Amino acid sequence: MQFRLHKLTPHRHLLLVQRDDGTTTRDELDSRSFVRHDLMHWCFENRAGITDAFLGQGAAPTTTSQAYAVTEVLVGMLQGVAGREVDPQQFVDRAAEYLPSQGHVLPPFVDAAFVRAVLAHWQRLYGQWQSLRVGGILELR
Fold first, then answer.
1. Which residue in 6, 22, 71, 98 has a CA-CA distance of 20 to 30 Å to 58?
2. What pLDDT sits at residue 52?
3. What is the DSSP secondary structure assignment for residue 132, as one 8-state letter?
4. What does the alpha-carbon distance between residue 85 and residue 39 come to, in Å, rounded to a whole number?
5. d(Cα 12, Cα 30) in Å, to the nearest integer?
6. Kindly report the CA angle at 64 between 61 and 70, in degrees rounded to 5?
7. What CA–CA distance (Å, rounded) separates 60 from 122?
């Protein structure tokens, strides 16, 4: 899978997802609202090996799989703490308490080491995005 973010203007980007089967999804988005979230999805799903959530469905889900729903909640929670000092174990504990209220359980791979790795990966990629000039492309495979 290829995941490309094209910086169109300082405030807009094109998200292009090309799946392994050759199908693609393209969306022009407001960068302020979406780029942090899109990059968090990449980091989370890539590290977890998830293929049937947001990116695996080409950023335009056709089903509401359990993996999609849990991923969306956890990515939102991670996005909320990204760039701040956070204790990874406290994050895991909080997620384990919160997910059942949404009808989900914490996936077994989500532990402190996983959270630490996802946040560090996101920090690197977000820094790369911020350093791009208009017209630049952040490409991930």
1. 98
2. 66
3. P
4. 19
5. 5
6. 105
7. 21
* Nearest residue to 25 (alpha-carbon basis) of 4, 8, 42, 51: 4
Decide: 25 and 59 in contact? Cβ < 8 Å. yes
DSSP output for 6-58: EE-SSSEEEEEEE-TTS-EEEEEEEHHHHHHHHHHHHHHHHHHT--SSTTTTT
Contacts for 9-12 with beta carbons within 8 Å, 24 or more apart?
9/134, 10/134
Name the helix (H) or strand (E) containing 126.
helix 112-131
| Cα–Cα–Cα angle for 87, 121, 23, rounded to 5 degrees | 130
pLDDT in tens, 59-82: 444 455 677 889 999 999 999 999
| pLDDT for residue 141 | 85
pLDDT reported for residue 17: 86
Spans of the chain below 70 pLDDT:
52-65
The pTM of the full predicted model, rounded to 2 decimals, is 0.87
